[in-house]
Structures are given as structure tokens and as C-alpha cells.
Write a structure and sequence with these properties.
- With 336 residues, the protein is α/β, with parallel strands linked by helices.
- It has 3 domains: 3-98, Beta Barrel (OB fold (Dihydrolipoamide Acetyltransferase, E2P)), CATH 2.40.50; 104-263, Rossmann fold, CATH 3.40.50.300; 277-335, Probable gtpase engc, domain 3 (Ribonucleotide Reductase Protein R1, domain 1, Orthogonal Bundle).
- The chain has helices at 6-15, 17-20, 24-27, 31-38, 135-152, 173-181, 197-202, 219-226, 230-238, 285-288, 307-312, 318-335; strands at 42-49, 52-57, 60-66, 80-84, 93-98, 104-107, 117-121, 125-131, 155-161, 186-188, 208-212, 250-254, 259-263.
- Strand 8, helix 5 and strand 9 (155-161) form a beta-alpha-beta unit.
- It is globular, with a radius of gyration of 22 Å.
- Bound molecules: guanosine-5'-diphosphate and zinc ion.
- Guanosine-5'-diphosphate (GDP) binds at residues 161-162, 164-165, 190-192, 213, 215-221, 266.
Length: 336
């Protein structure tokens, strides 16, 4: 997603009159909504596009900018902010405060980088979409997102999509069992046939749920099934700044579910550059619960470590241990 370059934004703002022209929604803001915003009520960021911020307040979309004194602030989709209303139809709402986050999904470009991006703030869940016919590549990505979700306090869900392309479904059993054993719900879907989409939808009610996955796994196709008229809704939300689908996250409401879905740009990798190797095991539930009695054990061959016994007892899946070792070594390399 785009990082906000406030300086560029300010310049662009002055020049870009098209952006501050009267907009239907702002014109239509009710008197009571105007009064409430005036009391600096809390709004929620639904789109950030190169510094152009759209917030939702009482079901109304408001184009927004930072108030003076907020320069240099970075907000992400899902952030809660206080706003003051536009002064007139040529104006926009002003963000006066960024509120603390309950959760955050942070990724870095690679494990060595600390160029962290908050992919989404305050989301309840993150759905990692994988293609069921190429699980091996997908689960490595998923394992990284699961770690990031644990760090940022979101609940992960796995969605194995394109199941219509899988001829032998027993090939999925091991992965399903592996993730359910660590408390991660798994949904098997096909955006092509619609299979499993209702079961996925049921997980979304009342939540803010972000979706992530490599490009091409079917996120957009699933959104089309989950959110009626999604393209229209995205156009509506994005109209204050135009949406660059490849760089920006966007939140869209799901009618009837009291839910918001956050579409995040397809990514190739999910870097964990903000995490210390020493803390990695805390974010794999089966290792966090290992009951290893050694102090500060990294469960990496230390004599007396309980890991081999847990592995033999089936408490830790070999593929997850493999993930742990890979990530541990990647994070150590990154730490140099
Ligand atoms: P995104 O990049 O994750 O948003 O993926 P898209 O939704 O654009 O899907 C990429 C391609 O996969 C498109 O050609 C879709 O039609 C196709 N696709 C998506 N979901 C499914 C599925 O469940 N089964 C099959 N066979 N194809 C799918
Ligand atoms: Zn140990």
C-alpha cells in the first residue's frame, strides 16, 4: 500500500482543484452528522491513496486531510481518527487526531528491512487466501502472515480457494488439520463455483476483516461474491482520489453483515523485519505452548529442549517446524 508522503500531498493538494470540488456525499451530510463531527467524533479511515484519505462517519464518506500540526502522521485503512467537518462544500474534513490501535498488521519489504507498512489497522481478522492447487507455495506465505497476525493481535483465517481445480481433495487434509490444530479456522472455497463462500461469509459478520494473498489467488473474485456491486462500491469510495488498485488498500462495507472487508494489494512476499528472531517462537502457538523448561530456549537443537518430544508426540507438525526453522534463520541472517 502507498505510504503517505505528506509533503507531496500538501503540494498536490494546492494544485489539485479537481479533488476539492463539491462532492455529493459531503453536500448531503446531514445537519446532525455535521454537529457530531464538529465535536470531533471518531471516524474510520476506509481508503488511503497517496495521501488522499477517505473516512467513513455515520455511513457517510468524507474526503479528509490532516489538520495543521498533524503533518508527518501516517494513517492506514482501519485507523480511527477524530475529524472536524468541512467548512463548506469546497473544503474537506480535517483529521485532528489519530487514535491508538487495537491491532495492526505490519509487513516489511523483506526480513532485513524496517520499512514497515501498516497494511491494516484495527482489523479483527485477516483472511489469507491461498490456491488449493498450489498449497506448498501458499502455506509458506501463510505462515509468515500468521506470525505477523499474532504480533499485531489479529485473528487469522485460512481460505483455500480454487478447490474446483483440485482433483484429489485428500491432498488438502493434512494442511487443514495442521492449521485447525493451532486454532486457525480453514475455509475451502471456489470463487468459480461458489462452493464454501457462504461458510466464509459467516466468519465475517460484525467484523473488519482484511484479505491478503499473492496476486492471482482469487481475492477479487471472492470479493465479487461477498460484496454485491463491489466495483461500484470501490468506485464510490475511491472517487475522492481515484484508486490505484495495485498500491492502495481499501475497506468496503458488506450490506446486511455489519462487516467491512479490507482488500489489500497482492504481495509477493511478507517481510517480518520488525520481529526479533528471539521472539519468533512466541508467535507460533504450538511453540509458545511447548512447555520447554530451558530458559530462553529457541528450540533449535539445545540439549534438553522439549521440542523433539513434542514433535514425536504430534504436538508440533513437521511442516510448521520447518517454517519455524526457515523463519528463524531468515530473521537471524537479517539481524546480521
Ligand atoms: P487476485 O489477484 O487475488 O484478486 O485474483 P483474481 O480474483 O483476479 O483471480 C485470478 C484468476 O483466477 C482469475 O482468472 C479468476 O477468474 C481465477 N479464479 C479466481 N478464483 C477461482 C476459483 O476459485 N477457481 C478457479 N478455477 N479460478 C479462479
Ligand atoms: Zn526448547
Amino acid at each position: 500500500m502507498a505510504r503517505i508522503d505528506v509533503e507531496a500531498f500538501e503540494d498536490e493538494w494546492e494544485d489539485d482543484h479537481a479533488f476539492v470540488e463539491p462532492r455529493r456525499k459531503t453536500d448531503a451530510l446531514s445537519e446532525s452528522a455535521k454537529r457530531k463531527v464538529a465535536e470531533h467524533e471518531v471516524a474510520r479511515v476506509v481508503a488511503v491513496d497517496r495521501g488522499r484519505i477517505t473516512v467513513v462517519f455515520e455511513d457517510e464518506l468524507l474526503p479528509s486531510r490532516f489538520a495543521g500540526g498533524m503533518r508527518g502522521t501516517k494513517v492506514s485503512v482501519g485507523d480511527r481518527v477524530r475529524v472536524v467537518p468541512p467548512r463548506d462544500v469546497n473544503d474537506v474534513a480535517r483529521i485532528t487526531e489519530l487514535l491508538d490501535r487495537d491491532s495492526w498488521l505490519i509487513r516489511t519489504g523483506d526480513d532485513a528491512q524496517e520499512d514497515e507498512r501498516v497494511v491494516v489497522a484495527n482489523a479483527d481478522q485477516i483472511v489469507v487466501v491461498l490456491t488449493a492447487d498450489h498449497l506448498d507455495v501458499g502455506v509458506r506465505f501463510a505462515d509468515r502472515v500468521l506470525v505477523a497476525a499474532s504480533v499485531g493481535r489479529l485473528d487469522p483465517v485460512l481460505c483455500l480457494n480454487k478447490v474446483d481445480l483440485v482433483t484429489d481433495r485428500s491432498t488438502l487434509d493434512d494442511a487443514v488439520a495442521r492449521y485447525e490444530a493451532i486454532g486457525v479456522p480453514v475455509r475451502i472455497t471456489s470463487a468459480e463455483t461458489g462452493e464454501g463462500v457462504d461458510e466464509l461469509r459467516m466468519l465475517l459478520a460484525g467484523t473488519w476483516t482484511a484479505f491478503t494473498g499473492h496476486s492471482g489467488v482469487g481475492k477479487s473474485s471472492l470479493f465479487n461474491l461477498l460484496v454485491p456491486d463491489v466495483d461500484q462500491v470501490v468506485a464510490e469510495i475511491g472517487r475522492f482520489g481515484g484508486r490505484h488498485t495495485t498500491v492502495a488498500a481499501i475497506a468496503v462495507p458488506v450490506p446486511g453483515l455489519e462487516a467491512w472487508l479490507v482488500d489489500t494489494p497482492g504481495v509477493r512476499s511478507f517481510g517480518l523485519g520488525t520481529l526479533d528472531a528471539d521472539h519468533l517462537a512466541d508467535h507460533l502457538p504450538e511453540l509458545a505452548q511447548l512447555d520447554c523448561e530451558l530458559d530462553d530456549c529457541l528450540h533449535d537443537g539445545e540439549p534438553g529442549c522439549r521440542l523433539p518430544a513434542a514433535l514425536a508426540a504430534g504436538e508440533v507438525h513437521p511442516a510448521r517446524l520447518d517454517t519455524y526453522r526457515r523463519l528463524l534463520s531468515a530473521l537471524r541472517d537479517a539481524e546480521g
